[in-house]
Backbone:
């Protein structure tokens, strides 16, 4: 049975804000696309860019990283450091021509509806790009 | 000279037409020297031992691991290579993968399907040193056929292509080429080089020789005789066992499961590479583990020259 | 005083126990790194437009017995020294930076067009390179990273060799062409180049700022990529390395020169260096005292890319 392609998006959500926001969306029965797979992390600042690259390597069509709003980080400054790292990664991916595969957001614990809106927007953005371009690729090592 | 002189001469067009009959590749060396309309591969190793190869697939189902070995595959392929690259296959790769039982089935299948031709060289590049390690630019040894472009056509030795006998002017051209190559050929390494290197293992000179080498894998990956590989699983509940090239230059190459690493220092790894190619392999198999193609010299980022390294150690011993 | 005289004097007076410099290679247009320890060896010290290798890479693996070392430093090598001191890998007092103004390094691949070219057939005349009697603008023969170099002369040095003959070519924006391509074409370009990579790690090993004892690429637990050179694994390696070099890359281009396949790998690291320069006003290896960009933050850091 061949179902049409659905994007798979890995979402790194910080425990204190974004994960709680997602939880609130759940208990409020707010509908949003089921394409995200959530990974709970303590803080957006603990998200190593290598996790994002690894997710893409394993075939994720898109990645979302979400944390507390600047100034509201549970660990005070984790999201400020994250913001700098993510800016560099974002610009690098844009430079490579891979804009819109990796998304970032600030979602607080009380923003259930907003979390759903973010997921909706990210899913649509990734869907319009098509499947992960790293999955198929020529390799120098394939025997001719 | 290893040419019998009993070959034939064919036109260039006939030669190209014959080559085009099946799936034909050339090596990059050949592609660089002659305009041939065939895709290029870096070395014969690229075909016989691809850098990435799945050996078996596995998946977890019904509470057990299901493992399915992948059948060896190979389609008939013709490869036109330089004589040193042919020697790399016959003297080193075949000895390693086919020389002991059990033979490597993947390599064996590809090798059986490979029709290997040697295209003679008419000059030595600055990086060539095949004659230092027992090779020759006009060697036919190990090849299924031999070809050499002359001014009036292509000289051909082997099965499958018929032509006319050599004219006397062409015989003279060949003889002049042989003489010219004889004059410019780099002289062989001293006879007891493998023994000298073996005995020099503990000397201080290695620190000095190895300094400068970046310990990257460029030389090993581009080398037509290097064959070391790594086996690494890809996937978790479902995936494959992948064989991939490994390099003795990498720090984890000899990392044991106990976490002991007998070659943790870059000097030890550089020494091992020289000894493997110029000492251990010749002592065990009677031929050098290097064919003198010179790629490592040409492409090393810091111009670390393996010829000089061998010379220095040997002159220390003499 | 010339470079050789200075180096010789430093060794004779035991101000340093070694001079890290360049020596003639075994092939035309190739040079190799060498640690000069004996004053009479200094005869072989050279500095030409074929000295692209970053010598600072060797500062962290000097042989025993070298307490203080002098390094022949182009602008980029000087930046590497400063960056390594700032990261506490080197003591400033054990380092003598022998600055040389750099004309830019020639991309030897561009010389492959002339068959069997010998060194004596190439000369330099101001802002021109003369090959077999024909003059060409030097700029078009330089490495990409040299064409956009901002610091041709080291900013921090102990001794600076004066040379008024060194041309000072204008800076080019070598990434402009790539940036102007539409996105699909840019990805096509990088997809093709990343697929070519055989993961020999020459780029990483030639880099003075990549000195980790265990590289993330060789980590088994956790494993970020598979040893085989597929597009997806090469992608992780190069982008991961670019992120690890963010704010640390000194833009020397040694990585690109080292690549045996001629992949323009430096473009990625230079683009990241541009991002850090533009948004965080930071350049690696320029100011020893400046705080690293990723251990500080500002409340008004760029935020527009975040939903």
Residues:
């Amino acid at each position: 049975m061949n179902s049409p392609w659905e994007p798979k998006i890995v979402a790194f959500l910080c425990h204190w804000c974004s994960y709680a926001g997602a939880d609130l969306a759940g208990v409020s029965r707010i509908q949003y696309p089921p394409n995200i797979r959530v990974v709970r992390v303590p803080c957006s600042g603990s998200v190593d860019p290598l996790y994002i690259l690894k997710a893409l390597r394993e075939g994720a069509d898109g990645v979302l990283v979400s944390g507390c709003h600047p100034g509201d980080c549970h660990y005070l400054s984790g999201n400020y450091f994250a913001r700098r790292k993510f800016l560099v990664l974002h610009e690098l991916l844009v430079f490579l021509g891979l804009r819109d595969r990796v998304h970032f957001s600030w979602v607080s614990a009380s923003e259930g509806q907003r979390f759903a809106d973010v997921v909706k927007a990210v899913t649509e953005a990734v869907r319009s790009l098509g499947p992960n371009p790293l999955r198929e690729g020529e390799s120098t090592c394939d025997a001719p | 000279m290893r040419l019998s002189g009993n070959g034939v001469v064919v036109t260039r067009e006939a030669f190209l037409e014959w080559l085009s009959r099946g799936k034909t590749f050339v090596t990059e060396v050949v592609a660089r020297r002659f305009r041939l309309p065939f895709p290029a591969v870096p070395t014969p190793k690229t075909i016989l031992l691809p850098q990435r190869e799945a050996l078996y697939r596995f998946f977890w189902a019904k509470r057990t691991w299901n493992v399915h070995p992948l059948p060896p595959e190979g389609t008939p392929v013709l490869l036109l290579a330089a004589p040193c690259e042919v020697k790399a296959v016959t003297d080193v790769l075949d000895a390693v993968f086919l020389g002991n039982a059990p033979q490597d089935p993947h390599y064996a299948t590809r090798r059986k399907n490979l029709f290997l031709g040697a295209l003679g060289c008419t000059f030595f590049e600055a990086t060539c040193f095949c004659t230092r390690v027992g090779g020759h630019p006009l060697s036919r040894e190990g090849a299924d056929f031999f070809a050499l472009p002359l001014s009036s056509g292509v000289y051909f030795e082997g099965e499958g292509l018929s032509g006319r006998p050599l004219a006397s002017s062409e015989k003279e051209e060949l003889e002049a080429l042989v003489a010219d190559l004889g004059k410019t050929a780099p002289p062989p390494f001293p006879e007891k080089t493998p023994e000298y290197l073996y005995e020099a293992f503990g000397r201080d000179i290695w620190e000095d020789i190895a300094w400068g080498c970046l310990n990257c894998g460029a030389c090993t990956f581009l080398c037509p005789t290097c064959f070391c590989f790594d086996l690494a699983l890809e996937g978790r509940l479902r995936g494959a066992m992948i064989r991939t090239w490994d390099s003795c230059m990498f720090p984890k190459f000899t990392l044991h499961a106990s976490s002991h690493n007998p070659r943790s220092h870059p000097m030890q790894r550089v020494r091992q590479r020289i000894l493997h190619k110029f000492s251990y392999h010749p002592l065990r198999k009677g031929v050098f583990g290097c064919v003198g193609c010179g790629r490592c010299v040409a492409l090393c980022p810091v111009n670390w020259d393996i010829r000089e390294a061998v010379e220095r150690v040997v002159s220390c011993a003499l | 005083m010339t470079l050789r005289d200075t180096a010789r004097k430093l060794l004779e007076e035991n101000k340093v126990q070694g001079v890290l410099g360049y020596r003639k290679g075994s092939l035309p247009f190739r040079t190799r790194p060498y640690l000069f320890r004996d004053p009479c060896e200094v005869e072989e010290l050279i500095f030409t437009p074929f000295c692209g290798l970053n010598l600072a890479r060797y500062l962290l693996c000097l042989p025993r017995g070298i307490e203080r070392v002098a390094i022949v430093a182009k602008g980029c090598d000087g930046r590497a020294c400063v960056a390594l001191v700032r990261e506490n890998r080197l003591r400033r007092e054990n380092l003598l930076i022998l600055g040389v103004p750099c004309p830019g390094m020639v991309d030897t691949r561009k010389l492959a067009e002339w068959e069997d070219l010998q060194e004596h057939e190439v000369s330099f005349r101001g802002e021109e390179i003369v090959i077999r009697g024909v003059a060409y603008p030097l700029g078009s023969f330089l490495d990409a990273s040299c064409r956009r170099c901002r610091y041709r002369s080291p900013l921090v040095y102990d001794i600076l060799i004066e040379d008024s003959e060194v041309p000072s070519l204008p800076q080019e924006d070598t990434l402009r062409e790539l940036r102007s391509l539409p996105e699909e074409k840019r990805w096509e370009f990088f997809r093709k180049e990343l697929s070519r990579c055989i993961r020999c790690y020459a780029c990483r090993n030639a880099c003075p700022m990549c000195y980790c004892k265990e590289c993330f690429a060789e980590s088994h637990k956790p494993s970020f990529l598979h040893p085989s050179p597929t597009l997806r694994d090469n992608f992780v390696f190069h982008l991961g390395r670019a992120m690890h070099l963010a704010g640390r890359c000194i833009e020397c281009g040694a990585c690109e020169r080292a690549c045996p396949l001629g992949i323009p790998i430096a473009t990625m690291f230079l683009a990241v260096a541009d991002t850090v320069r533009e948004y965080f006003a930071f350049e690696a290896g320029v100011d020893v005292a400046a705080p690293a960009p990723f251990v500080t933050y500002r409340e008004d850091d760029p935020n527009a890319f975040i939903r």
About this structure: Chain C has two domains: 3-107+142-163+173-295, 108-141. Chain C has a mean pLDDT of 94. The two ends of chain C are 59 Å apart (CA to CA). Chain C has nine helices and eight strands.
